[in-house]
What does this fold into?
Amino acid sequence: MSHDGPHNADAAVTPPEMDGLGCHAGGEMDKAARAAGKSEILDRYRADYPTGPHDKPQSMCPAFGSLRVGLRMRRVASVLSGSACCVYGLSFVSHFYGARRTVGYVPFSSETLVTGKLFEDIRDAVHELADPDRYDAIVVTNLCVPTASGVPLRLLPKEINGVRIVGIDVPGFGVPTHAEAKDVLAGAMLAYARAEAEAGPVAAPESGRSDKPTVTLLGEMFPADPMMIGALLAPMGLAAGPTVPTREWRELYAALDGGAVAAIHPFYTASVREFQAAGRPIVGSAPVGADGTHAWLAGIGEAFGLPAERVAAAQNQFVPATRAALAENRIDGTITLSGYEGSELLVARLLIESGADVPYVGTACPKTPWSAADAAWLEAHGAKVKFRASLEDDCAAMAAIEPDLAVGTTPVVQKAKEKGIPALYFTNLISARPLMGPAGAGSLAQVVMAAIGNKDRMGRMKAFFEGVGQGDTAGVWEGAPNEHPEFRAAHQKKLDKQARAKQAQEMI
Ligand code: SF4
It folds into this structure.
């Protein structure tokens, strides 16, 4: 069978020249991808996920987000196409987080990339894998190099033996964070499911349908949170619908069928587009803290056109209970907060309502309409909110404020500890807790106050390690570190020469 392979004689960067280009080659890869026919998708990503002060991922490989979404779904196979080192890293992290699933891989060489054979290999792989007894769908993901080379996943069959084939490009130079990569896959699946639902009747989810109108929840949450949200909705005669990203294909139809969508995590731009195309209203923010719960219930009531007394019934039941839980679990101290999960603003609201002073909130995610109310609330309560914050922004804020506690990503936590400032990892310790309604109100105080209480210990550790060196002289040395500044100078000369040669070539 003939096909439109990725080979493009006009490509600005041919694959052999791409050797050695990786996460930090954003601009060059983008140019190559555009020359190889990927402009449309890259333009869409640029609109959906506008870049910040830099064009390189600063956290883990973005494709981890979409890979994890696929791996968590029942009867869905995941296949990666990319450099072996990227695939190794991605499968390692997946298994570290307990994927317990096979990560499929179609390897390539410069030759298969240039001749278009890689596309044939991917097509053969999906044909081989498409067993309807085992799978509802197969997700194929182009990582950086195949995207930059224009490997045309859109030309894969849409379906083989009843197994849906979903091809996505998730390059680090087009999708800035792993959070937004979750949206790339969730959005692609919703688009597919919406087309299926429009074409005819579709299957009900295995868990059955609710007899009440439902609210679809957008964003991965702590498992107890959707249940708490269900309880909040019950007095209004509503129920919590599926959480997107879903755990099985059929839930996508039920998600599209909800009466409204709660964008609990605000960065799902492509998914929101699908819900809006299905005519569903979107409600931003989330029921966090007393103010957040009050406003969110009002927003849901408005989306469903409910009478004011139904909304008031839910508010009267849950807002005082949330306030009471907050009063019992106070936080005393100044906290800087940053992360790349997308829930940073919600957590900051909860910290402030618990009594903390939060002067800085950084999120690697972009500004969207669905976090606007949270940003406004935070700014009104003394926080500076930085969207698309870089690691440098987060570290600078932490260093300038010198908080009692820094909540952040691994490098921020490391820098804080170096300064003797207590610090907590956002991903492992904060976002793995309930946040919603009365259940979330008291959940952060214990861990936060315990960490703040460690200040003296951090100070003793700082004093103990004082003088062990920094950067490449870190560690314990017998005698003085052997630094060899002449090697460094020689290497710098070489780099300068290369830069001059490159500049000269560009001027020709
Ligand atoms: S696929 Fe991920 S790990 Fe590989 S170069 Fe791109 S951003 Fe980096």
About this structure: The two ends are 43 Å apart (CA to CA). The longest helix spans residues 485-507.
